[in-house]
Amino acid sequence: MTKNGTRTTWTGMVPVDDTALAVTDTGGPGVPVVYLNGQFATQGYWRRVVADLGTGWRHITYDERARGRSRRSADYSFEAAVRDVDAVLAARGVDRALAVGWSYGAVVAAHWAGRNPDRAVGAVMVDGAFPYDWLDEAMEQRIRKLFRRMSWFLPLLRPTGLAPRMTAGQQADSNIELGRLSRERELGPVLDTIAVPARYVIASGTSFGSRGDEQERIRTGLDAVTARNPNIRISAKVASNHGALLKKDFRAITAAVREIAALDRGTAKQR
Question: pTM surpassing 0.90?
Protein backbone atom coordinates (compact mmCIF):
# COMPACT_ATOMS: atom_id res chain seq x y z
CA MET A 1 0.00 0.00 0.00
CA THR A 2 1.12 3.54 -0.64
CA LYS A 3 0.99 6.32 1.95
CA ASN A 4 -2.40 7.51 0.74
CA GLY A 5 -3.86 4.00 1.08
CA THR A 6 -4.08 3.10 -2.61
CA ARG A 7 -3.00 -0.33 -3.75
CA THR A 8 0.27 -0.74 -5.62
CA THR A 9 0.83 -3.66 -7.98
CA TRP A 10 4.25 -5.28 -7.85
CA THR A 11 5.68 -6.94 -10.95
CA GLY A 12 9.08 -8.58 -11.02
CA MET A 13 11.19 -11.72 -11.13
CA VAL A 14 11.35 -14.18 -8.22
CA PRO A 15 14.53 -16.33 -8.20
CA VAL A 16 13.87 -20.04 -7.65
CA ASP A 17 16.47 -22.80 -7.96
CA ASP A 18 18.17 -22.31 -11.34
CA THR A 19 15.49 -20.05 -12.79
CA ALA A 20 13.39 -16.95 -12.11
CA LEU A 21 9.62 -16.62 -12.30
CA ALA A 22 7.73 -13.60 -13.62
CA VAL A 23 5.28 -12.64 -10.86
CA THR A 24 2.53 -10.06 -10.54
CA ASP A 25 1.11 -9.22 -7.11
CA THR A 26 -1.65 -6.64 -6.82
CA GLY A 27 -1.02 -6.24 -3.10
CA GLY A 28 -3.60 -4.97 -0.69
CA PRO A 29 -5.25 -6.39 2.45
CA GLY A 30 -7.73 -8.71 0.70
CA VAL A 31 -7.63 -12.50 0.72
CA PRO A 32 -4.54 -13.60 -1.24
CA VAL A 33 -5.44 -15.70 -4.27
CA VAL A 34 -2.62 -17.50 -6.08
CA TYR A 35 -3.43 -18.55 -9.64
CA LEU A 36 -1.85 -21.71 -11.08
CA ASN A 37 -1.74 -21.91 -14.85
CA GLY A 38 -2.48 -24.59 -17.37
CA GLN A 39 0.46 -26.69 -18.43
CA PHE A 40 1.77 -24.40 -21.15
CA ALA A 41 -0.31 -21.29 -20.39
CA THR A 42 0.64 -17.94 -18.88
CA GLN A 43 -0.67 -15.69 -16.14
CA GLY A 44 -2.55 -13.57 -18.65
CA TYR A 45 -5.18 -16.31 -18.98
CA TRP A 46 -6.58 -15.25 -15.58
CA ARG A 47 -7.30 -11.63 -16.45
CA ARG A 48 -11.10 -12.06 -16.62
CA VAL A 49 -11.21 -13.92 -13.32
CA VAL A 50 -9.05 -11.26 -11.68
CA ALA A 51 -11.16 -8.43 -13.10
CA ASP A 52 -14.44 -10.03 -12.05
CA LEU A 53 -13.27 -10.56 -8.46
CA GLY A 54 -12.05 -6.99 -8.39
CA THR A 55 -9.89 -4.97 -6.04
CA GLY A 56 -11.12 -6.51 -2.80
CA TRP A 57 -8.71 -9.40 -3.26
CA ARG A 58 -4.95 -9.76 -3.43
CA HIS A 59 -4.24 -11.40 -6.80
CA ILE A 60 -0.92 -13.22 -7.30
CA THR A 61 -0.23 -14.58 -10.76
CA TYR A 62 2.97 -15.93 -12.24
CA ASP A 63 4.39 -17.69 -15.27
CA GLU A 64 5.69 -21.20 -14.67
CA ARG A 65 9.22 -22.16 -15.65
CA ALA A 66 9.96 -21.36 -19.31
CA ARG A 67 6.44 -20.08 -19.82
CA GLY A 68 5.61 -16.46 -20.53
CA ARG A 69 8.36 -14.20 -19.21
CA SER A 70 9.84 -16.76 -16.80
CA ARG A 71 13.26 -18.18 -17.51
CA ARG A 72 14.28 -21.65 -18.58
CA SER A 73 15.20 -24.36 -16.08
CA ALA A 74 16.78 -27.79 -15.95
CA ASP A 75 13.77 -29.02 -13.96
CA TYR A 76 10.25 -28.99 -15.39
CA SER A 77 8.93 -31.67 -13.07
CA PHE A 78 5.61 -31.54 -11.29
CA GLU A 79 7.35 -31.40 -7.92
CA ALA A 80 9.19 -28.29 -9.07
CA ALA A 81 5.83 -26.74 -9.97
CA VAL A 82 4.49 -27.41 -6.47
CA ARG A 83 7.66 -26.01 -4.86
CA ASP A 84 7.30 -22.88 -6.96
CA VAL A 85 3.96 -22.08 -5.30
CA ASP A 86 5.72 -21.92 -1.94
CA ALA A 87 8.61 -19.92 -3.40
CA VAL A 88 6.31 -17.29 -4.90
CA LEU A 89 4.22 -16.94 -1.74
CA ALA A 90 7.32 -16.71 0.44
CA ALA A 91 8.85 -14.07 -1.81
CA ARG A 92 5.68 -11.99 -1.53
CA GLY A 93 5.35 -12.49 2.24
CA VAL A 94 2.08 -14.42 2.06
CA ASP A 95 1.38 -16.96 4.82
CA ARG A 96 -2.08 -18.19 3.72
CA ALA A 97 -3.61 -18.19 0.28
CA LEU A 98 -6.51 -19.51 -1.72
CA ALA A 99 -5.18 -21.60 -4.62
CA VAL A 100 -7.00 -21.51 -7.95
CA GLY A 101 -5.69 -23.80 -10.68
CA TRP A 102 -6.81 -24.61 -14.20
CA SER A 103 -5.99 -27.90 -15.97
CA TYR A 104 -2.40 -28.80 -14.95
CA GLY A 105 -2.62 -26.04 -12.38
CA ALA A 106 -5.64 -27.76 -10.81
CA VAL A 107 -3.46 -30.77 -9.99
CA VAL A 108 -0.82 -28.44 -8.53
CA ALA A 109 -3.53 -26.74 -6.44
CA ALA A 110 -4.81 -30.09 -5.16
CA HIS A 111 -1.33 -31.23 -4.11
CA TRP A 112 -0.48 -27.88 -2.53
CA ALA A 113 -3.74 -27.67 -0.57
CA GLY A 114 -3.43 -31.27 0.60
CA ARG A 115 0.12 -30.73 1.83
CA ASN A 116 -0.56 -27.36 3.46
CA PRO A 117 -3.85 -27.47 5.41
CA ASP A 118 -2.69 -24.67 7.72
CA ARG A 119 -1.65 -22.40 4.87
CA ALA A 120 -4.42 -23.07 2.37
CA VAL A 121 -7.59 -20.99 2.67
CA GLY A 122 -9.01 -23.48 0.18
CA ALA A 123 -8.66 -24.57 -3.43
CA VAL A 124 -10.60 -24.18 -6.66
CA MET A 125 -9.81 -26.77 -9.31
CA VAL A 126 -10.87 -25.65 -12.78
CA ASP A 127 -11.43 -28.58 -15.15
CA GLY A 128 -8.47 -30.58 -13.90
CA ALA A 129 -7.34 -32.90 -11.10
CA PHE A 130 -9.62 -35.75 -12.13
CA PRO A 131 -8.40 -39.12 -10.82
CA TYR A 132 -8.69 -41.36 -13.86
CA ASP A 133 -6.39 -43.85 -15.55
CA TRP A 134 -6.29 -42.22 -18.97
CA LEU A 135 -2.61 -42.86 -19.68
CA ASP A 136 -1.61 -46.19 -21.16
CA GLU A 137 1.19 -47.13 -23.54
CA ALA A 138 -0.89 -46.26 -26.60
CA MET A 139 -1.77 -42.84 -25.18
CA GLU A 140 1.86 -42.18 -24.27
CA GLN A 141 2.90 -42.89 -27.85
CA ARG A 142 0.09 -40.68 -29.12
CA ILE A 143 1.32 -37.80 -26.96
CA ARG A 144 4.90 -38.17 -28.14
CA LYS A 145 3.77 -38.34 -31.77
CA LEU A 146 1.63 -35.22 -31.36
CA PHE A 147 4.48 -33.14 -29.94
CA ARG A 148 6.92 -34.44 -32.56
CA ARG A 149 4.52 -33.24 -35.24
CA MET A 150 4.31 -29.81 -33.61
CA SER A 151 8.05 -29.48 -33.08
CA TRP A 152 8.70 -27.55 -36.29
CA PHE A 153 6.36 -24.65 -35.54
CA LEU A 154 6.60 -24.44 -31.74
CA PRO A 155 9.73 -22.23 -31.99
CA LEU A 156 7.77 -19.86 -34.24
CA LEU A 157 5.14 -19.40 -31.54
CA ARG A 158 7.53 -18.77 -28.65
CA PRO A 159 8.10 -15.06 -29.36
CA THR A 160 4.32 -14.54 -29.16
CA GLY A 161 4.07 -16.24 -25.75
CA LEU A 162 1.76 -18.93 -27.14
CA ALA A 163 4.30 -21.71 -26.60
CA PRO A 164 6.76 -22.36 -23.77
CA ARG A 165 10.51 -22.23 -24.18
CA MET A 166 10.68 -25.99 -23.84
CA THR A 167 11.53 -28.58 -26.44
CA ALA A 168 8.77 -30.74 -27.90
CA GLY A 169 10.24 -33.68 -26.00
CA GLN A 170 10.14 -31.80 -22.70
CA GLN A 171 6.53 -30.85 -23.30
CA ALA A 172 5.63 -34.45 -24.08
CA ASP A 173 7.42 -35.64 -20.93
CA SER A 174 5.49 -33.12 -18.84
CA ASN A 175 2.19 -34.27 -20.32
CA ILE A 176 3.03 -37.92 -19.71
CA GLU A 177 4.07 -37.19 -16.13
CA LEU A 178 0.69 -35.52 -15.61
CA GLY A 179 -1.01 -38.66 -16.90
CA ARG A 180 0.85 -40.79 -14.39
CA LEU A 181 0.05 -38.41 -11.54
CA SER A 182 -3.62 -38.40 -12.55
CA ARG A 183 -4.07 -42.14 -12.11
CA GLU A 184 -6.70 -42.99 -9.53
CA ARG A 185 -4.19 -44.71 -7.24
CA GLU A 186 -1.97 -41.61 -7.36
CA LEU A 187 -4.36 -38.65 -7.33
CA GLY A 188 -7.19 -40.23 -5.35
CA PRO A 189 -5.23 -40.36 -2.06
CA VAL A 190 -4.04 -36.78 -2.60
CA LEU A 191 -7.62 -35.53 -2.90
CA ASP A 192 -8.63 -37.58 0.13
CA THR A 193 -6.12 -35.64 2.25
CA ILE A 194 -7.60 -32.22 1.44
CA ALA A 195 -8.89 -30.87 4.75
CA VAL A 196 -9.87 -27.37 3.56
CA PRO A 197 -12.83 -26.32 1.39
CA ALA A 198 -12.24 -27.32 -2.23
CA ARG A 199 -14.48 -26.67 -5.18
CA TYR A 200 -14.46 -27.91 -8.78
CA VAL A 201 -15.59 -25.94 -11.79
CA ILE A 202 -15.98 -28.40 -14.63
CA ALA A 203 -16.10 -27.76 -18.36
CA SER A 204 -18.00 -29.75 -20.97
CA GLY A 205 -16.90 -31.57 -24.09
CA THR A 206 -13.41 -32.02 -25.43
CA SER A 207 -9.97 -30.53 -24.85
CA PHE A 208 -6.98 -30.21 -27.16
CA GLY A 209 -5.81 -33.67 -28.20
CA SER A 210 -8.80 -35.59 -26.80
CA ARG A 211 -11.11 -37.75 -28.87
CA GLY A 212 -14.83 -38.44 -28.70
CA ASP A 213 -16.17 -38.59 -25.15
CA GLU A 214 -12.69 -39.17 -23.74
CA GLN A 215 -12.70 -35.97 -21.67
CA GLU A 216 -16.17 -36.56 -20.28
CA ARG A 217 -15.17 -40.05 -19.15
CA ILE A 218 -12.12 -38.60 -17.39
CA ARG A 219 -14.35 -36.16 -15.51
CA THR A 220 -16.38 -39.04 -14.05
CA GLY A 221 -13.35 -39.92 -11.91
CA LEU A 222 -14.42 -37.13 -9.57
CA ASP A 223 -17.62 -38.87 -8.47
CA ALA A 224 -15.94 -41.23 -5.99
CA VAL A 225 -13.84 -38.39 -4.57
CA THR A 226 -16.79 -36.16 -3.68
CA ALA A 227 -18.50 -39.18 -2.09
CA ARG A 228 -15.48 -39.82 0.16
CA ASN A 229 -14.36 -36.31 1.09
CA PRO A 230 -17.04 -33.85 2.28
CA ASN A 231 -14.60 -30.93 1.89
CA ILE A 232 -14.69 -31.36 -1.89
CA ARG A 233 -17.73 -30.36 -3.92
CA ILE A 234 -18.59 -29.58 -7.51
CA SER A 235 -19.44 -25.90 -7.66
CA ALA A 236 -20.53 -25.82 -11.30
CA LYS A 237 -20.44 -27.63 -14.61
CA VAL A 238 -20.45 -25.08 -17.41
CA ALA A 239 -21.19 -25.19 -21.11
CA SER A 240 -17.72 -24.10 -22.26
CA ASN A 241 -15.09 -26.64 -23.26
CA HIS A 242 -11.74 -26.98 -21.53
CA GLY A 243 -9.97 -24.32 -23.55
CA ALA A 244 -12.72 -21.70 -23.47
CA LEU A 245 -13.76 -21.94 -19.83
CA LEU A 246 -11.53 -19.15 -18.48
CA LYS A 247 -12.79 -16.84 -21.20
CA LYS A 248 -16.50 -17.62 -21.31
CA ASP A 249 -17.40 -18.96 -17.86
CA PHE A 250 -15.03 -17.07 -15.58
CA ARG A 251 -17.94 -16.04 -13.35
CA ALA A 252 -18.40 -19.66 -12.29
CA ILE A 253 -14.79 -19.61 -11.09
CA THR A 254 -15.18 -16.36 -9.18
CA ALA A 255 -18.35 -17.69 -7.54
CA ALA A 256 -16.40 -20.69 -6.23
CA VAL A 257 -13.62 -18.41 -4.96
CA ARG A 258 -16.12 -16.23 -3.11
CA GLU A 259 -17.80 -19.27 -1.59
CA ILE A 260 -14.55 -20.58 -0.16
CA ALA A 261 -13.55 -17.17 1.21
CA ALA A 262 -16.94 -16.88 2.91
CA LEU A 263 -16.49 -20.30 4.50
CA ASP A 264 -13.06 -19.26 5.76
CA ARG A 265 -14.47 -16.08 7.29
CA GLY A 266 -17.20 -18.10 8.99
CA THR A 267 -14.65 -20.50 10.43
CA ALA A 268 -12.51 -17.61 11.69
CA LYS A 269 -15.48 -16.11 13.56
CA GLN A 270 -16.09 -19.42 15.35
CA ARG A 271 -12.54 -19.58 16.69
Answer: yes
